[in-house]
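call fold(seq) -> tokens
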Amino acid sequence: QVQLVESGGGSVQAGGSLRLSCAAAGYTDSVNCMAWLRQVPGKNLEAVATIAAGAGSTDYADSVKGRFTISQDKGKNTVYLQMNNLKPEDTAMYYCAADWSRCGLRTPYEYSYQGQGTQVTVSS
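ret:
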């Protein structure tokens, strides 16, 4: 089992920044992919960014490229999402997710583990 706890969400004006954190605990050595997902009520879950736990390679949704950065601190078992130049359309519940498979093989709904989420609200 892997436990994921997100923090760092909040309310910010458009153009502002937030940094989300995801602390992982449990059988983290078996995790190959970490991801940040987001969901707006009534809409599908969206993969925002992924990072390979081993090599550290990253991938981003087109809507956040150049504005968001995913990173990891292996010593702290923590993954971060730095979000800059936030837009009202970034408003969503953000979830941290983990899976045994390598990144790119799972849809947002197929990750083995997902945290409880942290709300991000961006006002215009």
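Residues 9 and 118 are 5 Å apart (CA to CA).
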